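Two proteins follow. First one:
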Amino acid sequence: MKGHVVKIAHDEYGCVVANGGAGDIMWQVAADSLTALHRAIADVGALPQLNNEEGSQNEEHIFVQYHSSRTVRKLILESHVPDGVNAPSFAAILWDVVLKGKCKMWAQGHSEKVVSAFLDCSDLEMKNMASSELQPLIDAGLLKIASAKHV
């Protein structure tokens, strides 16, 4: 399962599917499966980051790897749940499983783009919740705000 999730995180079309597809069709017909996919991506994000002695260069964490970090960022920026669907957004799942209380350790390098995406997230409730943890990191100069245009 991890291998498939990592492939989705590296693929622009995987991002379209994970966001619910054109016209949110996936949310309408398979909300539970979409939520399970979001949880699987978050579970891969929760895996520890390996250093060079523990893992190969091909096994970079999805928050650190160039392409997957941008895909995860895009998923956060476009995170939403359509009206009438009772499910958490991707951003909410990722925050709860991986980042809540741990943003400081991801506030540099490519992973900084993942963390700062919460400040421009489409899920306004999630954006407000994350801001309280991220603002002190910004104020301390530990987190730079990445432009939403630079996905």
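Second one, unrelated to the first:
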Amino acid sequence: MKLTRALVAQTDGSLAQLEPFVVAALIMTTILHAVHSVNRADSNYVLSTIRVLLFGAFMFCNKGRRASLTAVQQGVLNTIPKDVRTALKRLNVSPDIIRYACC
């Protein structure tokens, strides 16, 4: 598996160019949001948590070699969106969401 695909996905946003584990994270978050009615703020928190966990895994793997991320690792992190709406767009999903006014 080539991690350089993530750098390509950063520029064109093509789903085919994303790493499989990034696609899995996007699918999980969009299912939580669209199917299980998790609100946008909590869905964004899930995406942020995934980014932090991946950052920690990268830093753990780099321990002893370097104290920062490589360009490829940073590129992978940048492919994980910070907002669930971006994840929905990347997956070409437009869920039927009914909004109600709550007073």
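SUMMARY FIELD: Residues 73 and 97 are 35 Å apart (CA to CA). The chain is about 60% helix and 0% strand.
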